[in-house]
Amino acid sequence: MGRPGYLTLPIFSVLAAIGYVYYTTVFVAVAGWLGLATAAGVANAAAFTALAAACLATYAVAVCRDPGRVPPAFLPDVEDAETPVHEVKRKGGDLRYCQKCGHYKPPRAHHCRVCKRCVLKMDHHCIWINNCVGHENYKIFLVFVLYAVTASFYSMILIIGSVMHSAPKDEQSGSDSSKTSIIICGVILCPLTLALTFLLGWHIYLILQNKTTIEYHEGVRAMWLAEKGGDLYHHPYDLGVYENLISVLGRSIFCWFCPVSNNTGNGLRFRASYDLTSSKPAM
């Protein structure tokens, strides 16, 4: 049930990339373009420092926070009227039971082969945080990606501004090392920004439909089977855009982008579209 050590090569790579991009952006790009003694230079350096600190803080929480473990004593109550959805095995139709962990799986829970445990509302295992992304740390992971995308674009703007400012000048003193740092930082930032932007867009798409990455891939197959049988597939946890958002980000819109995990529920039961249907008065 234990996790491997926190400091892995991917984590070290992320920390090294953050440190290098921060150093180059503040002490090379901003210092060379605006200067760290000017109001504009101090303001931009302070703003980027705050973003970098937010990235590091949320990243550390995403790495260290437990994604949510299934209680060993969990037992699904098939007669509970408040739990209209009971996920079953594809073959046999039995309630899902994890042979490796020795307990039943709640809805949306999955066993992680890397962490060797069942994770509540598991989205995926991320090697870059050496942790699963699940019910308890999904929002933190999402906020980290949001901060990282914002910081990446901000850094690119400052670096491009610095390059355009220094291009017409013919400065030889110290220019070679500065140019090398800028080039290396650009090589890191371009693919990183593209990948993070795609990742953020992907998870926004999933949140709007109240799906995890695993459920998306399972839903593609379920949709194909439903269409093959002449039926329509509907994701059981899709509550509508607003309800889907608050189920992950929390009910207070002012806390949606705060690095706190205020998602609803305990990860053992989730509201389903059947709840909305059953709550409507009969005509």
TrEMBL record:
This is S-acyltransferase. Its EC number is 2.3.1.225. It comes from the Eukaryota. The chain crosses the membrane at residues 12-36, 42-62, 140-161, 181-208. It is found in: Membrane. Belongs to the DHHC palmitoyltransferase family. PANTHER family: PALMITOYLTRANSFERASE ZDHHC16. The gene is LOC100844981. InterPro entries: Palmitoyltrfase_DHHC, PFA4/ZDH16/20/ERF2-like. It is a multi-pass membrane protein. The keyword Transmembrane helix applies. GO terms for biological process: protein targeting to membrane. Its main location: membrane. Pfam families: DHHC. Coiled coil: none annotated. GO terms for molecular function: protein-cysteine S-palmitoyltransferase activity. It catalyses: L-cysteinyl-[protein] + hexadecanoyl-CoA = S-hexadecanoyl-L-cysteinyl-[protein] + CoA. The keyword Transferase applies. Residues 94-217 form the Palmitoyltransferase DHHC domain. Keywords: Acyltransferase, Membrane, Transferase, Transmembrane, Transmembrane helix. The DHHC domain is required for palmitoyltransferase activity. One of its GO terms (cellular component) is Golgi apparatus.
